[in-house]
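Lab notes, practical 5.
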Amino acid sequence: MASQTLQSVPAEPSPARDEPSPEDAARLDAEGQAYFDKVMAEDSRIEPRDWMPPAYRKTLLRQISQHAHSEIIGMQPEANWISRAPSLKRKAILMAKVQDEAGHGLYLYSAAETLGQPRDQMMQDLMDGKAKYSSIFNYPARTWADMGAIGWMVDGAAIANQVPLCRASFGPYGRAMVRVCKEESFHQRQGFEILLELSHGTPEQKQMAQDAVNRWYAPALMMFGPPDDDSPNSKQSMAWNIKRFSNDELRNRFVGMMMEQVKVLGLTLPDKDIRFNEETKKWEHGPLDWAEFHEVLAGRGPCNAQRLERRREAHQNGAWVREAAAAYAEKQNRKQAEKVSAA
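Output from the prediction step:
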């Protein structure tokens, strides 16, 4: 686009490439499908320039863009507590964590762009309410203890969900997740440390920690998505090696992780039906309010409108930065073009 602005007259349109005949197109698709099937069977990776079924590309765009949106929106509940952190140490740690989340969003938007979707369009879809993000971020963070619960439970659930994504069949997504998961482990540890300090503090502090765990327990479990028999995309994503485990399996694994760690905290999980299944050797949780999950996902949660309005406001306030960067890039392109012309 920048080079076109330097031309005084419109360039002649380049000759259109010959479109393949229907027979050739069918042959190319068959060859591409055979290669794709081979990659899936070998549990290898598809790269952006490789042939892929349109439905595979669409599924990846949906999942990766939603993941990126979740990282960006997910900054808000915690950023709100930076100025109210109880110490400079806690403030510095929380600032570092929020900055990490911004970086995660950028990694994932970059991965989605390799599938042909412009970042500006993804951002616009988010601000227009056309794109979804994790329902967990539509709940308010009421106390400092919520920073601990979010770190331990929400980021803990993210780790359980995302570590298998490091082996996703789409190369850019899997590679992005390797770095994301390394940083998420710090986030989870930070949250656990906050809860540990509070739970071993005064009775009031321990109660504050328990209240936060009570608030975030069910939303954290619902982060893994609906039950397997009500998940329209899970089975196909597993067949394509994007996901490695079902929603319910990941959820039960996470419950098992929490059951061990909550003992150290001296807190309890708010689930009277939680139990260890002797046959499967796995922990199982009680019923969840999936009606609430779908209400929040549909945009009718406690903070949905607030989160999107804040995102629109931040986007608008940052317009001058984008304009300055574009002007600088255009200036550099013009200088480079002048050097080439003078040579």
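Observations recorded by the TA: The longest helix spans residues 171-199. The CA atoms of residues 218 and 289 lie 8 Å apart.
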